[in-house]
Amino acid sequence: MIKGLHWYKIAAILLLLVTSWFGLMGDVPRLVVLNETIRNLYFHVPMWFGMVVILGASAVHSIKYLSKPDPVSDIKAEEMAKTGLLFGILGLVTGAIWAQFTWGEWWSSDPKQNTSAIALLIYLAYLVLRGSFREEQQRARVAAVYNIFAFASLIPLLFILPRLAEDSLHPGNGGNPGFGGYDLDANMRMVFYPAVLGWILLGFWITELRVRLKKIQLP
Amino acid sequence: MKSNALKQFLALLRHEFTAEWRQRNALGGVLLYVVSTVFVAYLTFKRVEPLTWIALYWIILLFASVNAVAKSFIQYAPGRMLYYYLVADPLALLAAKLVYNIVLLWTIQLLAFGVMSLLVGQPVQDPLMFLLSGGLAAIGFAASGTLVSAISHKATNQSTLMAILSFPVLLPVLTLVIKLSKNALDGLDRSVSYDELLSLSAVDALVVGVALLLFPYLWKE
Fold this sequence. Notes:
The complex is a heterodimer.
Chain A: H1 7-25, H2 44-67, H3 71-102, H4 111-131, H5 136-164, H6 186-217
Chain B: H1 2-22, H2 24-45, H3 50-74, H4 80-87, H5 90-119, H6 127-152, H7 158-185, H8 194-218
Helix pairs in contact in B: 1-5, 2-3, 2-5, 3-5, 3-6, 3-7, 5-6, 6-7, 6-8, 7-8
């Protein structure tokens, strides 16, 4: 067994191979407007799942840090926030491309687009906050407090507000039928769920590499 | 211990009000900020569309609120927090700041509403509902603002941090209250807004709760 090669990394490779093959070559239902862009479901939607899960894990590590100040928890919280940010940016970009081909505009002031952009602002601010301290323990503690607070305000942002708005273009909002309704057939589900899991595992893999690097650099 | 914390809370709250009253120029500054921004808006827009009115009102209030709440910790000289750390209960201190800031934001909102109505016109058809939702939003603003002020108090670039840290976390409250304001502006039946009022109260409760939970970790120097 190669050192550092955990089961979840193998799982991530396999799941993403499945996703890429069936995502590009598999059979998808032919739908009006969506056409072939429906394949983006395997790449765009998992970015959001990945972002929320990884940012949640980051908040958990911040809670851990506050209950027991261990520099490794702080490193994990920071690196997970960065990976979450990466997923958020990718989600926004893949979403904008999808929106251009289905809704006709890169940015159509959709509530979910806006709230996601706000989420990115919050975590960019978190990184700026981290940069404004010289003393490491103080930085870790204050950043942990902001991280938990930010995640707590992200929850209403991502889940409650888009549902209240009537004019969302996303499926499942504002009278639009959800993807679960009839668009997503059984074949697509077989690819979609592995894709979500695969991308999330890849996110944790990226984080793990960076955490290991940071651990070596610890004084 | 519990009654002690309550006594501390009342003493600190009284201190907030007396200290503010003794330094009336700070309070006057905040209120003048509101009046002059409204006046600038009036001079540039004269009469505005109702929707623009709402946008202007909330932009002015967002900046005025962040400025007003920012000083709750940022104004502290180094060592002041250490003094509080020795003598006071963290929850009592935060609760006192919070209540004071809520009252301050209510004052600011009433002033802004009054001056806006006088100069730019008053298109709101259900002013009571408008002010009620604004009052609820003030609680969320005060809680986020107070915690963020305590966070940026520790850092080197305080005022920049105050803005970039607080604007995104204020946005859930702001989006909800703008929705509610639009309902009140159009004079929609109040039952239409119950859903959003409930969401706004829930977000307020969440923000206040998380702020109270997290503050004790912040104030150890």
